[in-house]
Amino acid sequence: MPAKSNAQQRAAGAALSAKRGETKVGELKGASKDMYDSMTEDELEEFASTNREGLPDKVDDDD
User: Fold this and answer.
1) pTM, whole model, 2 decimals?
2) pLDDT 10s digits, 14-44
3) Are 19 and 47 in contact (CB under 8 A)?
4) In terms of CB atoms within 10 Å, which of 13, 26, 31, 34 comes out highest?
């Protein structure tokens, strides 16, 4: 499933970086920390690799 917004794509990228050991888990906060805890590396890679062209900056959680 692709990311629905630029913010979601960036958060997934940060969480993926921590999963791979490239950044410290302690540096994560908000959505990226939640994603790190609840998603696999493959799921994060799918979100993080979403083309950001045409995505809104962020979307409401109501969708």
Assistant:
1) 0.84
2) 999 999 999 999 999 999 999 999 999 999 9
3) no
4) 13
